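hey
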């Protein structure tokens, strides 16, 4: 049983992370409101889809060596500088792979998007925000949660001020926004490395990294598949329904994604607890209570947004007001989406990275296939949206069945 002192420590860590999530939620909402309303719906659909593709692409950087880096920061903090040097070295080696993948995205999904805008947005995610995340991950691994929280808030604030500047100076084109977005993300990354990186001694030890790639590659595969299943739906909607519908869909899913911020704070602490204490297993009633709490917080967030827009449909801007018609049709999606993410984090904490990758790959294929099917059968632009609830019920059933099989096994057993 967890001691009272340990319980207080965990509660303090969660409140630190959660307070950062609330602050980030406010800042991210301000940024989202400006970007979603200054750009046209079609341009926002292209931007949101390209940004999501960039997030997936950034997970290929350094061939997934972020997992050994995080474990070193958590378990062997004195080696953090050595592992960060390895990450940066492998990042450079992975650039040709990133270029090939970006070229494939250009011809398969973004053929109608200005090439310059696409390249700038992808670079913003890979060279900018991902580098900020690396520093935040190091701080979280060393349990400097407050420092990591401030960093994420600062990075989000920089992007928000950039969006406000974009609006203030009267810019409106997608390419102009892409330049603004790249500049903001690079400034945030420079701030992260210049101010928030703990004192480290960078030492390159190539022999060490080869052994760690056995852990890095499966974890990276699972991470890539996780973000692929989270972002692939935007690409499917863009290709099959066009930029304007993709813009409406991206706005709705972004509002849903904002409901996950408090949940992710809990996920991170649960994962670290499992990583450092392999004997930890929670009772079935407690696990069910946690899932109910995640579902309630997720749906509550969407209901709050719906209530605000019911009071004044234009309070969050014209484009978000247009997308608000989708919210009642997606009521179950936030809970199911966040629970699937929670399940994935549990599997990572239990060191079941192979199973996590297989599960997320299954979810990605099912989601893309089912989404393409319902869009193709729909007779109107948005007639397929209520079916997203059914799709996510099916995805949650697959995820829950997999995770509960692992949890029910005796402590220490591995199939």
């Amino acid at each position: 049983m967890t001691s009272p002192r340990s319980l207080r420590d965990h509660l303090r860590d969660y409140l630190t992370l959660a307070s950062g999530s609330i602050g980030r939620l406010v800042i991210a909402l301000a940024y989202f409101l400006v970007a979603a309303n200054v750009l046209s719906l079609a341009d926002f659909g292209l931007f949101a889809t390209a940004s999501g593709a960039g997030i997936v692409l950034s997970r290929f950087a350094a061939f997934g060596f972020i997992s050994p880096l995080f474990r070193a920061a958590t378990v062997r903090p004195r080696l953090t500088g050595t592992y960060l040097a390895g990450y940066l070295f492998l990042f450079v080696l992975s650039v040709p792979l990133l270029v090939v993948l970006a070229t494939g995205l250009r011809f398969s999904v973004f053929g109608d998007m200005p090439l310059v805008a696409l390249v700038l947005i992808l670079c913003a995610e890979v060279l900018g925000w991902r580098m900020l995340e690396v520093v935040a991950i190091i701080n979280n691994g060393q349990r400097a949660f407050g420092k990591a929280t401030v960093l994420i808030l600062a990075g989000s604030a920089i992007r928000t001020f950039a969006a406000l500047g974009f609006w203030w100076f009267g810019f409106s084109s997608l390419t102009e926004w892409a330049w603004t977005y790249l500049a903001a993300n690079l400034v945030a990354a420079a701030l992260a490395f210049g101010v928030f990186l703990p004192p480290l001694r960078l030492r390159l030890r190539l022999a060490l990294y080869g052994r760690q790639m056995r852990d890095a590659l499966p974890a990276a595969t699972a991470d890539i598949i996780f973000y692929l299943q989270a972002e692939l739906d935007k690409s499917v909607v863009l290709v099959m329904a066009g930029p304007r519908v993709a813009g409406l869909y991206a706005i709705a899913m972004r509002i849903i994604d904002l409901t996950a911020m408090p949940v992710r704070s809990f996920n991170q602490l649960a994962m670290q607890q499992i990583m450092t204490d392999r004997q930890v297993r929670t009772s079935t009633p407690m696990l069910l209570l946690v899932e109910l709490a995640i579902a309630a917080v997720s749906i509550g967030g969407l209901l709050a947004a719906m209530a605000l827009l019911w009071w004044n449909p234009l309070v969050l801007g014209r484009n978000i007001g247009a997308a608000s018609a989708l919210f009642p049709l997606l009521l179950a999606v936030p809970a199911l989406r966040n629970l699937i993410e929670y399940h994935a984090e549990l599997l990572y904490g239990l060191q079941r990275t192979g199973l996590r990758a297989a599960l997320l790959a299954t979810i990605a294929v099912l989601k893309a296939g089912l989404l393409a099917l319902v869009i193709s059968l729909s007779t109107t632009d948005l007639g397929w949206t209520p079916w997203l609830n059914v799709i996510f019920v099916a995805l949650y059933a697959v995820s829950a069945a997999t995770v509960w099989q692992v949890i029910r096994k005796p402590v220490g057993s591995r199939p």
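Residues 4-407 form one domain. Residues 1-5, 411-415 have pLDDT under 50 and may be disordered.
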